[in-house]
Amino acid sequence: MDLIDKALEFEQRKMKSLSTSDRVKISREAKALILDLNQIYKVKKDEKIMDIMKRLTAIKRKVEKRLKGAPLTA
Question: For the residues of 44-65, what is the DSSP string, one character each?
Answer without folding.
Answer: H--HHHHHHHHHHHHHHHHHHH
